[in-house]
Amino acid sequence: MTKVITYGTYDHLHQGHINLLKRAKDLGDYLIVGVTTENFDVNRGKINVEQSLMERIEAVKALGIADEVFPEEYFGQKIDDIKRFGVDIFTVGSDWEGHFDYLKEYCQVVYLPRTEGISSTQIRESQSYKLGVVGTDITIKKFVDNSKYVNGLEYNSIFFDEDVYFDFSNISNKVDSYDDLLKMNDVIYVASRPEKRFSYIKKALEKGKHVISESPLSFNSKETKELISTASNKNLILFDSIKTAFLLSFSRLILLIKSGVIGEVKAIDATCTSLEYKDWILKTRFSDSLSQWGPVGLLPIFKILGTKYKTFSYDVYEIDGIRNAYSRLNFEYDGAFASLALGIGVKSESDLRISGTDGYIYVPSPWWKSEYFEVRYENRSDNKPYFYQSDGEGIRMELVHFINCIKKQSKNYYVEDDITNAITSTLEKINNIEK
Ligand code: C2G
After folding, report:
1. 23 lines ligand 1 (CB under 6 A)
2. Hey, which bits of 242-302 come out as E strands?
3. 114 lines ligand 1 (CB under 6 A)
4. Strands (E), 296-414
5. Is the CB of 77 under 6 A from ligand 1?
6. Residue 434's pLDDT band (cuts 50, 70, 90)
7. Residue 274, SS3 per DSSP
């Protein structure tokens, strides 16, 4: 019996895939098909896959061509599989010509002709959304750069609503008014100063546009609730943009904690500081430590301990005339504490520690974009490092999820509405008193 093996993502299974699977089957008597997992695809730079692993496996199985279907999870697995299944022929489409020649040591390698004129990318791009940007925040650069990697989203134009501080010369197509921006685009990215976000978001939603906005959406609980309910009533997607939530390492860390690897969580200590944009903030008064760092700092606390803290206290300090340039926030929960230090005029070790009854998790500085963390125990030999690659500091995955939510009319489950509301209401408590 001649055993043949082939691999693929098979996102939105199409005629090209089907032709290839038939040709592969014709090479022998028994066809084995490896379907890539989400994790493996992200690691090999394929971030736009829309269907889940189960959906893709089911679709391949339903064709009835393959005798066996299984997940492909890691680099190097092909060698293992070939040995494990006793494979005679490895095959893929001619787009991979030469790439898998290293497998010739283990079996015959055949590159089959590819079907021209059809691809998963084409199917995913068949509905592409035009992206308009409003604001002057430094994050715009990274955001527009990373949007290029996302199928179904196409940067279109920008409205600078005030004098720009940074060199945005790489960003083309400036428009003269927010109304023009709304007319030309399907989705709006709001990166203005915090106090202007509410009115931009509100107007965009009223015009039927999906919105992704820097966080916090507002410093007023009523306003944030209003935006969330307007979006929901109009079946529009509103994303409270906190990139860290989409970092693979951060989302895996949350799952690990929920599965009990460090026991019961008793304390969370997070520090977020940077001097990088101090000059900008001093000159433009664009933000302070609370608006700059508050949402990301609060994210692990609310994700792990929930949004219903028992007590909340804080201290804020002025530096160089910036109100709230350094702040410390303390939360008390039933049986747990959390503390947060946020600074734009102070530099400190910006790490994250989550302490539990069995051990703790350490995420090194700068933890909000770290691809690495460690689970540590009393007995050091039990310590375990974790590494998860995420290109684009979470922005790419965030945009992919944003587009998927628009297409599937589903909710953002990385930053849920109760977290968005709790971020606003917590920052509001400080702002009300500090005004
Ligand atoms: N294919 C094809 N014709 C097309 C599109 C795809 O023959 N028009 C083939 C590809 O060459 C591949 C298979 O269909 O052999 C699956 O394609 P994808 O789902 O795009 O998967 P791919 O990224 O090519 O993964 O470990 C994974 C493998 O390396 C291949």
Report:
1. no
2. 265-273
3. yes
4. 311-319, 322-333, 336-343, 352-356, 360-363, 372-376, 384-387
5. no
6. low
7. coil
Q: Provide the pLDDT for residue 123.
A: 81
User: Closest ligand 1 atom, CA of 91?
Assistant: 15
- Ligand 1: does its nearest atom lie under 6 Å from the Cβ of 51? no
Query: How far, in Å, from the CA of 17 to the mean position of ligand 1?
Result: 7
Is 277 strand, coil or helix?
coil
Residue 278 pLDDT class (50, 70, 90 cuts): confident
Nearest C-alpha neighbor of 209 from the set 242, 191, 184: 184
- Omega before residue 364 within 30° of 0, cis: no
For ligand 1, say whether the CB of 7 is within 6 Å of any of its atoms: yes
Ligand 1: which residue has its CA nearest to atom 30? 8
By three-state DSSP, how is residue 239 classified?
A: strand
**Percent share of the chain, pLDDT over 90:** 85
Tokens 């206290």 -> residue = 313
DSSP 381: G
For residue 83, give both structure tokens: 């040995």
Q: Evaluate if residue 424 carries a pLDDT over 60.
A: yes
Is the CB of 10 inside a 6 Å radius of any atom of ligand 1? yes
pTM of the model: 0.86
Which of 181, 237, 180 minimizes the C-alpha distance to 208? 237
Give me the mean pLDDT over the 178-207 stretch: 97
Out of 42-46, 230-234, 382-386, least confident range: 42-46
CA 31 to centroid of ligand 1, rounded, Å: 15
Q: How far is the CA of 119 from the centre of ligand 1 (A)?
A: 9
Could you tell me if the CB of 93 is within 6 A of ligand 1?
A: yes
